Structure to design on (226 residues):
């Protein structure tokens, strides 16, 4: 298995809703990442997990809450989002942080906040 | 922080070669990457080059690295309509590989 699987592919949520994005990989990768991508822009790093521990939080608002339950799963819990949070949310993984061989990305969750 | 710049748009005819350019500011990077993003999809790692190399060839893809000028390029030979996508170069931030800065992205349009 050489894929990163993200669910759901599309999500529409109201500003008072709570929802979660899920990311799964079975490549034995020990580093996992959340990126946010707005239209016509490059991906922006949100969080880095290394060996299931949060390694980097790029000053992301607390309405985004990451969780890494085990080495294969990464969740992003969403609560009280704003319309400007609408974007493509990408999950990625790599063998380890710093291994230099690049990332494997999922196909993303397109989030619309109404 | 790292600045990674690319031209926004490139249009080529099918069968021609495409050259996508990238400039960066941090010279300590040891690996540099090229990713491809098709509409509605995630990013796909195309290739990477180690900084002690000037050139790397992988089938239709050729990566050129000029460390002195901090310039990276991706050449696609015999460009096909399936190559139409946005291409991002990516450079690890200084001090480690936990952070990677993506370039601004170049949209490649292939005209049949």
């Amino acid at each position: 298995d050489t894929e990163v699987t993200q669910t759901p592919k599309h999500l529409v949520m109201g500003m008072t809703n709570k929802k979660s994005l899920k990311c799964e990989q079975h490549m034995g990768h020990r580093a996992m990442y959340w990126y946010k991508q707005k239209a016509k822009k490059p991906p922006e790093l949100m969080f880095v997990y290394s060996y299931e521990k949060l390694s980097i939080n790029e000053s992301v608002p607390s309405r985004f809450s990451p969780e890494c339950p085990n080495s294969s799963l990464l969740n992003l819990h969403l609560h009280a989002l704003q319309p400007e949070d609408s974007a493509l949310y990408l999950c990625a993984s790599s063998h380890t942080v710093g291994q230099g061989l690049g990332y494997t990305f999922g196909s993303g969750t397109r989030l619309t906040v109404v | 922080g790292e600045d990674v710049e690319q031209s926004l748009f490139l249009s080529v005819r099918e069968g021609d070669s495409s050259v996508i350019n990238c400039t960066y500011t941090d010279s300590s990077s040891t690996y540099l990457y090229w990713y491809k993003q098709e509409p509605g999809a995630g990013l796909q790692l195309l290739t990477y080059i180690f900084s002690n190399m000037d050139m790397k060839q992988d089938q239709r893809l050729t990566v050129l690295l000029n460390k002195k000028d901090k310039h990276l390029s991706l050449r696609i030979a015999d460009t096909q309509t399936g190559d139409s996508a946005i291409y991002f170069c990516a450079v690890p931030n200084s001090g480690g590989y936990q952070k990677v800065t993506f370039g601004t992205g170049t949209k490649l349009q292939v005209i049949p």
Chain A has a mean pLDDT of 94. The first strand of chain A starts at residue 4 and ends at 7. Chain A touches chain B at residues 4, 6, 40-43, 45, 48, 50, 55-56, 90, 92, 97-108, 110 (CB under 8 Å).
